Protein backbone atom coordinates (compact mmCIF):
# COMPACT_ATOMS: atom_id res chain seq x y z
CA UNK A 1 0.00 0.00 0.00
CA UNK A 2 1.12 3.56 -0.63
CA UNK A 3 1.95 5.65 2.39
CA UNK A 4 0.52 9.15 2.65
CA UNK A 5 3.83 10.93 2.01
CA UNK A 6 4.32 9.15 -1.31
CA UNK A 7 0.71 9.79 -2.28
CA UNK A 8 0.88 13.53 -1.56
CA UNK A 9 4.24 13.79 -3.30
CA UNK A 10 2.68 12.22 -6.41
CA UNK A 11 -0.32 14.57 -6.19
CA UNK A 12 2.04 17.54 -5.86
CA UNK A 13 4.05 16.43 -8.92
CA UNK A 14 0.88 16.00 -11.00
CA UNK A 15 -0.42 19.43 -9.99
CA UNK A 16 2.95 21.07 -10.70
CA UNK A 17 3.21 19.35 -14.10
CA UNK A 18 -0.34 20.43 -15.03
CA UNK A 19 0.31 24.04 -14.04
CA UNK A 20 3.66 24.14 -15.83
CA UNK A 21 2.15 22.62 -18.97
CA UNK A 22 -0.71 25.12 -18.96
CA UNK A 23 1.64 28.08 -18.57
CA UNK A 24 4.00 26.86 -21.30
CA UNK A 25 1.24 26.07 -23.80
CA UNK A 26 -0.55 29.36 -23.20
CA UNK A 27 2.60 31.32 -24.09
CA UNK A 28 3.34 29.52 -27.37
CA UNK A 29 2.42 31.58 -30.46
CA UNK A 30 -0.34 30.14 -32.64
CA UNK A 31 2.09 29.67 -35.52
CA UNK A 32 4.11 27.17 -33.50
CA UNK A 33 1.20 25.02 -32.32
CA UNK A 34 1.62 22.43 -35.09
CA UNK A 35 5.32 21.71 -34.40
CA UNK A 36 4.54 21.73 -30.70
CA UNK A 37 1.72 19.23 -31.25
CA UNK A 38 4.07 16.94 -33.16
CA UNK A 39 6.60 17.11 -30.34
CA UNK A 40 3.96 16.45 -27.73
CA UNK A 41 2.80 13.39 -29.70
CA UNK A 42 6.32 12.03 -29.36
CA UNK A 43 6.29 12.67 -25.61
CA UNK A 44 2.86 11.05 -25.27
CA UNK A 45 4.23 7.98 -26.99
CA UNK A 46 6.85 7.75 -24.26
CA UNK A 47 4.12 8.23 -21.64
CA UNK A 48 2.18 5.37 -23.23
CA UNK A 49 5.21 3.08 -23.06
CA UNK A 50 5.72 4.06 -19.42
CA UNK A 51 2.06 3.30 -18.64
CA UNK A 52 2.41 -0.11 -20.29
CA UNK A 53 5.52 -0.86 -18.23
CA UNK A 54 3.73 0.29 -15.05
CA UNK A 55 0.77 -1.94 -15.91
CA UNK A 56 3.11 -4.86 -16.44
CA UNK A 57 4.71 -4.33 -13.04
CA UNK A 58 1.40 -3.83 -11.19
CA UNK A 59 0.71 -6.41 -8.52
CA UNK A 60 -2.53 -5.36 -6.81
CA UNK A 61 -5.91 -4.99 -8.54
CA UNK A 62 -5.92 -1.23 -7.79
CA UNK A 63 -2.52 -0.79 -9.44
CA UNK A 64 -3.66 -2.84 -12.42
CA UNK A 65 -6.82 -0.72 -12.75
CA UNK A 66 -4.84 2.52 -12.59
CA UNK A 67 -2.31 1.14 -15.08
CA UNK A 68 -5.06 0.06 -17.45
CA UNK A 69 -6.69 3.48 -17.28
CA UNK A 70 -3.29 5.09 -17.91
CA UNK A 71 -2.72 2.92 -20.98
CA UNK A 72 -6.20 3.67 -22.38
CA UNK A 73 -5.88 7.42 -21.79
CA UNK A 74 -2.34 7.47 -23.16
CA UNK A 75 -3.38 5.62 -26.31
CA UNK A 76 -6.37 7.93 -26.80
CA UNK A 77 -4.16 10.95 -26.32
CA UNK A 78 -1.59 9.75 -28.85
CA UNK A 79 -4.27 8.88 -31.39
CA UNK A 80 -6.09 12.17 -30.92
CA UNK A 81 -2.86 14.11 -31.19
CA UNK A 82 -1.98 12.49 -34.50
CA UNK A 83 -5.49 13.07 -35.86
CA UNK A 84 -5.40 16.74 -34.88
CA UNK A 85 -1.90 17.17 -36.31
CA UNK A 86 -3.00 15.59 -39.59
CA UNK A 87 -6.00 17.91 -39.84
CA UNK A 88 -3.86 20.95 -39.11
CA UNK A 89 -1.32 19.91 -41.73
CA UNK A 90 -4.15 19.47 -44.27
CA UNK A 91 -5.28 23.02 -43.52
CA UNK A 92 -1.84 24.37 -44.43
CA UNK A 93 -1.28 22.06 -47.41
CA UNK A 94 -0.97 24.34 -50.43
CA UNK A 95 -0.86 21.59 -53.04
CA UNK A 96 -4.41 20.53 -52.12
CA UNK A 97 -5.69 24.10 -52.63
CA UNK A 98 -4.05 24.29 -56.06
CA UNK A 99 -5.79 21.09 -57.14
CA UNK A 100 -9.18 22.41 -56.02
CA UNK A 101 -8.61 25.74 -57.79
CA UNK A 102 -7.63 23.93 -61.01
CA UNK A 103 -10.67 21.65 -60.73
CA UNK A 104 -13.02 24.66 -60.56
CA UNK A 105 -11.62 26.09 -63.83
Can you tell me about this structure?
There is one protein chain. The chain starts with a helix and ends with a helix. It has helices at 4-26, 33-57, 61-91, 94-104. Helices cover 86% and strands 0% of the residues. Helix 2 runs antiparallel to helix 3 (61-91).
List the helices and strands and how they pair.
Layout: H1 4-26, H2 33-57, H3 61-91, H4 94-104
Helix pairs in contact: 2-3
- The chain-level structural class is mainly alpha
Oligomer: single chain
Strand content: under 5%
The largest pleated sheet is described as:
none
> Unreliable stretches, pLDDT < 50, 5 or more residues?
none
Helix content: over 70%
Quick take:
This protein is mostly helical.
List its traits:
mainly alpha; 105 residues
Amino acid sequence: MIDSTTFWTAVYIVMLAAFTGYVIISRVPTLLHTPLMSGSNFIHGIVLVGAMVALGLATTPLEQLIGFIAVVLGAANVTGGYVVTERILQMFDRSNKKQKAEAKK
